[in-house]
Structure formats: structure tokens, C-alpha cells
Amino acid sequence: MTKDFLETPLLDILSQSAHRKHAAFYAPGHKQGKGISHKIRDLIGQQVFQADLPELPELDNLFASVGAIAAAQELAAQTFGATKTWFLINGSTSGIIAAILATCGMGEKIILPRNIHQSAIAGLILSGAIPIFINPEYDPQEELAYNVTPAAVKQALEQHPDTKAVMMLHPTYQGICSDLKAIADITHSYQIPLLVDEAHGAHFTFHADLPPSAMSLGADLTVQSTHKTLSSMTQSSMLHLQGNRVCSQRISKALQLVQSTSPSYLLLASLDAARQQMATEGKELMNQAIALANQARHKIAEIPKLSVLNPQIQPGCHYCDPTRLTINVSQLGITGFEADEILHEQLNVTCELPLLKHLTFIISLGNTQEDIQQLIAACETLTSLALSFQLSALSYRIKPYQGQLSAITPRQAYFMSTETVQIEQAGDRLCGELICPYPPGIPVLMPGEVITSEVVNYLKQIVAAGGTITGCNDPRLRTIQTLK
Ligand SMILES: Cc1ncc(COP(=O)(O)O)c(C=O)c1O
User: Is the pTM of this model over 0.90?
Assistant: First the structure.
């Protein structure tokens, strides 16, 4: 390890600025915390605000970086195996939108999996690109969407050789990764870039027992939510680029469109700190997270009526992240949403993602042995409580994410007039809004898609089971906006 990796150029300069005594006549209005409400001071103290500074001359400029931000981004590029890295302060959401804007224009095609995050749909609406969706492989036993196969990408490219870019998920929410190296090779044989939504894989670079990172498998561009699996603050992410299939200037231009002109230095410095932490202690920290996750996985698998997702190598699953723990609770006779409520409200254990049958937990460098003991004990209690559960009346045999695109692009549909229709009468009409159970934020219907009876059924069951639907005018989904 070179000495540079130990350095935190942005964090250091921010620390100096935060401690410089001066009279401040600039925004933000709290003036290093002197003007904050006592309620927020009681929760997080004044010190955080002391470092909440704007683009002072010594702090560089996110959109024209030549100083401390540029140095911190360069160290990040070296750490994550990229040629260039951009720090993001509007989450991976902004990076994914920018990746699409930088590679696809109005009416140009992009291939992407149907279970893509809603930020990619936002990218389609803003760019006017035409999506060519690939349905991910589906595990009928678990009723979970896995990932897409290289053969499916090859077939889509053969059918649409004029495609401008391919975007893949690496990994899915449950930690499932496709054979991204093979997909990169196929994509590059068409001289087009492979873009990756690696929101859940920022930790992959740091341990051989984790799936390889998208950069190491040949992606041209990847976007990582550093805040999801590493230690930076919420909303802070990174976009990494390698090679010259994607124009670096187009990325910078797109990021200026979709990010705040007042970037938070707290977020930026937290990215610098998280990068330094991983460059210096990453392997050890990942060793610990993997060991904790394995311990939880083995113990919970022994609890009656609970099963732990263990996808073997099969289509759509080439690697699996061992730090992602997904538990199937359906044998308890309750939904994942009900199990989540009991765990959160009664047993003080909170998961990342409840679904109809599953709960997914993120085990990261921040978890402790005590957390794992508490999780195992809570799962045992949940099972013993199960005797008193009323068997859920839900029928589980539903297959989500089977969208039926019409000839209208997401952008055209987004700007068309809509009308409110009772959900029961919406069958076969075109959807006028983005309907997305949250989490995981994967759209079930997007503007311009055909509202099939299967999708209506699926959404109704999510609402009935206590899930949240976002993006629609009526979150209880008694009505839906359709295109006129
Ligand atoms: C698969 C996936 N991609 C992208 C995002 C967006 O990431 P961010 O929250 O950093 O904007 C998320 C967020 O949950 C996600 O799950």
C-alpha cells in the first residue's frame, strides 16, 4: 500500500476550514451551527454543522475539481480499479440517470433488465431512450427474480444491433450476480459500453470471497452506493469509469444536470474517509462481515419453518454476495411484511427489505456480534410466536415484473395526459404513472406499459399485505392514472 492511500485530502482540508475562526457571510444560514434549533443540537450536536460548509476557495468545486476533491476522487479511482471516479451527492440515483444521459439520446435503444431500479426509468424518461427489457431469470420455488443470463443479452443484441448501451444490475437486492464478464464481452463485441448499477456492491473490491466488482469484470461504467454497504453518509455514492467507450465529458455534463449546485461537504468528506478506511482495512473489515453473515446464515437455517436463500450456481446467478442474508418466512403462515412488523416493533431487529415471502438483511462492516445474536434470537422468537398466527389468506403464486411495453416510450408516456380510473376497470389500458412497491424501488408498472390483470393482482396483494406503493397518485391503489 502506498502512503497516498492513507491520506484523506478532502477530509483534511474540510477539518482545517471547519476550525478556522472567521465571520461568515455566506450560505448555509446556520453559520457553522451557531444558528441551529436546540432540538437538532440535542440530537446530533453542533459539531456536524461546524463542518457543513459551502464551496469555499480552499474546498475545491465538485463540478470543476482541481484541488482537494480532485485528489480524493483520484485516490478513489485507484482504490476501486477505475480510470476516473466522480463523487456523487444525490445518491446512485443521480449516477444511474447520468450514465444513461451520457450514452443514449432521444429514440436510441438501451438494453436493461426488467427488474431495474426506478432511477434507470427516470434516466429513460429524461433521455427519451427506448428500453429493450430482458426479463431476469426467475426462481419459481422462491418466487424471486434473479439476474439475466449472457445468452439473453446476446439474443437482445442480435435482435437490436443498433443498441447504444447495455445496463446491468450487479448484484440484485438479494446479492445475486450474473456472469458479468461474459455479458461485458458480448456487449463489447458490438462496440458499445456496459453500464452497471452496482448500488449494492461497493464492498465487492475488498475481499476474494465476495463477487468480483463490476470494474474488474470489464464494465465500462459502474455506479456504487458507497452509503449502502460501506461507511459513508446516506446519499453519498460514486461513479467509476474505465476505458474510452463512454465519454468522460458527457458524464460530467449529465451529472451537472441531475445534482444539486450546493453539494454537501459532509457527504463528500465521508466518501473520502470511507475510501481511505477500505483501502487500508478493507479486507479485515470484510472478513469480519462475511464471518458474521455466515454465522447468522447457519444458525437461522436450523430454526424450524425458516429457510435461508442459498441460490446455487444456476441461470441468472453466477455469484452470490455472502453478506446478504435473505430469509423465507412463508412457512410461518405470515408475509414478509408481517414478519418485518413483528421484528421491528416487538423484537428490535430491523431488516433492509421485506417482500411478500422474504426478509433481506444487509450485514456490513458496521454490524457486531451482538447484532447477530439479537437477530438469531429474534428469528427463534418469531418462530415460536408463529403458532398464534392466523394463516395468511394470501395466494403467493404470483410472478412479478412481467411488464408489457406498448409502442410508447417512457418519455412520451410521461408527458401525455392521464385520467383517473378505478383499478378494477384499468385492465388492458396503458399506465400513466410509475408504480413502484418500496422498497425495493423496482417498478412494477411504468408510464406507457399495459396494465395486465396479473400486475393489478400483484399490487393489490402488496397493499393488502401492508407493503407501500410509491409513485402513484393513490397510494392505496383504489384508482390508477391511465393514459387518455
Ligand atoms: C438496485 C438499486 N439501484 C439504485 C438505487 C439508488 O441508490 P441511491 O439510494 O444511492 O440513490 C437503489 C436504492 O435502493 C437500488 O436498490
Answer: yes
Identify the CATH number of the domain in which residue 313 sits.
3.90.1150.10
* pLDDT computed for residue 156 by the predictor: 97
Q: How many angstroms is it from 122 CA to the middle of ligand 1?
A: 12
Cα(230) to ligand 1 centroid in Å equals: 14
425 and 369 assigned to the same domain:
no
Asked whether residue 331 is assigned to any structural domain, the reply reads yes
Integer CA distances (angstroms), 4 to 74, 79, 303, in order? 10, 11, 48
Examine the pLDDT at 398 and tell me if it is beyond 50: no
Q: Which residue among 93, 115, 173, 353 is best mutated to probe the pocket of ligand 1, counting the most ligand atoms within 8 A of its Cβ?
A: 93
Among 356, 388, 420, the domain-final residue is 388
Q: Report the pLDDT averaged over residues 378-382.
A: 97
Ligand 1 binding pocket (C-beta < 6 A) is 91-93, 96, 117, 119, 169, 173, 197, 199-200, 225, 237, 440-441
Out of 225, 226, 468, give the residue to mutate to test ligand 1, the one with the largest number of ligand atoms within 8 Å of its CB: 225
Mean pLDDT within 151-156: 97
Q: Which residue has the cell 445518491?
A: 91
DSSP string, 346-408: HS----SEE-SSEEEEE--TT--HHHHHHHHHHHHHHHHHGGGPPPP------------B-SS
For position 396, what pLDDT does the model report? 43
Give 104-126 pLDDT, tens digit per residue: 999 999 999 988 898 999 999 99
451 in a structural domain? yes
